[in-house]
Specification:
218 residues; alpha/beta; Rossmann fold; Arc Repressor Mutant, subunit A; 5 strands; globular; disordered N terminus
């Protein structure tokens, strides 16, 4: 084997999963700046990701939580079941104080908004930003002294997904289609969310979800 072929064989293979072509291209450029990394595939949704994973066998998957056909936490759980040795790194626009812990619980090895943590994850460590790490450490150190720092902690992953979609203005039918569940199931989740967040009716739920979603984008 020539030195060139040996170097290619030893490079870390990375699969990028994001439903925005421009984001995939930006991440790809960052990855390719490192001589020991190589992008072995790109996917825009869950189906493509699973197909490419079986074919290309990457060492690391970099994925966003917002995908066309599913939520990223659901995909992470599937990846952990089917490819238990696979490293998973979440690169997301979402507030890390809300989603980082959920992503790690689902099976991700890191949650970032910058590419520097790729090497950290590949070294076998779990990556947290300083802000997220401080929050989780505080919860562990003082579990019973105060309520959770963020209201959203009371919601399950699926309830969080429904709440987020409501915040983008989607109807019950649209939420059901996006999450591949029945409309009656969406209504059940809506009721649970209202109860947990102490919201009186659908109008309060919608207003709070929209305000929360807008705050994330600010």
């Amino acid at each position: 084997m020539t030195n060139s072929n040996r170097n290619r064989a030893e490079r870390t293979r990375i699969l990028i999963v994001d439903d925005h072509p421009l984001v995939r291209e930006s991440v790809k450029r960052l990855v390719q700046q490192e001589s020991d990394f190589v992008v072995c595939g790109e996917a825009e949704d869950r189906e493509q990701a699973l197909t490419l994973l079986a074919a290309s066998r990457p060492d690391l998957v970099i994925l966003d939580l917002s995908l066309k056909d599913s939520h990223g936490t659901d995909l992470i759980k599937s990846l952990r079941d089917q490819f238990p040795q696979l490293l998973i790194l979440v690169l997301s626009m979402h507030d890390e104080l809300v989603y980082a812990e959920r992503a790690i619980r689902a099976g991700a090895h890191g949650y970032i908004t910058k590419h520097a943590a790729i090497r950290w994850v590949l070294s076998g460590e779990i990556y947290w930003s300083e802000k997220a790490a401080a929050r989780v450490a505080s919860k562990v150190a003082r579990p019973s002294r105060a309520p959770a720092n963020h209201t959203m902690d009371v919601l399950t992953d699926r309830e969080m997904q429904v709440f987020e979609l409501i915040g983008t203005g989607q109807s019950t039918r649209q939420v059901a289609a996006a999450l591949h569940i029945d409309m009656s199931t969406v209504e059940t989740y809506r009721s649970r969310i209202k109860e947990k967040l102490h919201l009186k009716n659908a109008s309060e739920l919608l207003q709070f979800a929209i305000r929360w979603t807008n705050d994330l984008k600010a």
